[in-house]
Amino acid sequence: MNRRFDTASLVLIALFAAILSILSILPIPISFLGVPMTLQTLAVALCGYLLGWKRGLASVGIYLLLGSVGVPVFSGMQGGFQKFVGPTGGFLYGFLFMVLLCGLYPKRCKPVLQWVFGILCGIAGLLLCHACGVIHLAVVSHITVGKAILGASLPYLPKDLASVAAAFALSFAVQKRIRTR
User: CA 32, 38, 41, 46: dihedral to nearest 10 degrees?
Assistant: First the structure.
């Protein structure tokens, strides 16, 4: 019998969906154009870096599926399909691109190259996530892309870039620790 994921993988996927849910429901009380600040990007990047692209996509997909059927796992303990068609919907489905790119960085090369490629993959995924969010926000809110960038992307980029770097550093430390045991 060919199994896509073993038991340990399923547990990790569920665990990271739960971690993503917890870090998503605790908003930081700052909001621009209705886009709340959370630690979702940290959690999404961790999913990709630690689980790889396949298991990371599964974990983020479960999180999005739970939220879409009404489980309150999105920012501010909200859920429901309306979040995907509302102003912040593009950021939600943009997480799929982010976790994919974070999970694609090469893990079997020199540590210096791992850091360079890992951070670059994370930044590329973050920028793609922001692009999805900005375009979706502009269309749904009937504002210009420039206004959406100024209100919903630029204010969050420093925190999101720091989140990607922190997620990579944490994942690098965890992976190194696991390898030494």
Answer: 170
